[in-house]
Amino acid sequence: MDARSVRSGNCAILVLPMATNAKQGHRLDDSLTRKNNTHTKTDMKTNTEMTALITAMPARSAWMRGVKAYALEMVESAESELATVADLKKELLNGATNWREYSYGGCALIYDADIAERLCSPSEYAKTREGERAPNSRETWLDCQARALGQAATLIATVLKEGSK
User: Fold this and answer.
1) pLDDT (mean) for 19-40
2) Distance in angstroms (rounded) separating the CA atoms of residues 127 and 121
3) For 21-25, 62-66, 89-93, 112-116, which range has the lowest pLDDT when averaged over its residues?
4) Confidence (pLDDT) at 102
5) Same structural domain, 52 and 30
6) Residue 5: is its pLDDT beyond 60?
7) pTM of the complete model
């Protein structure tokens, strides 16, 4: 295998010859391209376009409506255009290392009642006494919110990659 280096602007790019994986029958560099998910300028969506696509997605449950609301808030609060999936998580986490830290750090809703109102159906909301009771035996409302935020980030990544579901 012979590798060569190519300069592109301020970056040096290492070009490797294509290799195949005989067992799986696909090119090894295909998996790298899929993981990087880089987009060209023509594939970029503005935050306004992404907001419109997320708003148009169906949300049949209270949970999904809450996830959609978090996704819309995150896209609107993004300081720059979300160009690639690689940049997406870093931009959306706003300095936190994961969604739990983001939730517990006060970057999203902080009151249990507000979180419960966003993520629960009216009957579930009443059953938890408007957020006074924990959502289940294993989580607090902030943990529940962290889970929803992770799903919202996945929703945004899906919209960024595909355009819409």
Assistant:
1) 40
2) 10
3) 21-25
4) 96
5) no
6) no
7) 0.71
**Residue 46 in tokens:** 């503005």
Same domain, 158 and 122: yes
| pLDDT at residue 44, as a whole number | 61
pLDDT of 130 over the 50 cut? yes
* Orientation angle between helical segments 47-56 and 141-162, nearest 10 degrees: 110
For 37, 130, 157, the CA distances from 53, given in Å and listed in that order, are 19, 31, 12
Strand 11-15 relative to strand 4-8, pairing: antiparallel
Which tokens sit at 35? Answer: 């993981």
Give the domain extent around 50.
Answer: 42-162
Q: Are residues 31 and 100 in the same domain?
A: no
Q: How far apart are CA 109 and CA 50, in angstroms?
A: 22
Give dist(CA 83, CA 72) in Å, integer.
16
- Are 28 and 95 found together in one domain? no
The residue assigned the tokens 């993520």 is 119
Q: What is the mean pLDDT of the chain?
A: 78
Tell me how far CA of residue 90 lies from CA of 31, 42, 65, in angstroms.
Answer: 22, 22, 24
Instruction: List strand residue ranges (DSSP E) for the chain, in order.
Output: 4-8, 11-15, 20-21, 26-27
56 and 104 Cβ atoms separated by less than 8 Å: no
Q: What is the pLDDT of residue 43?
A: 53
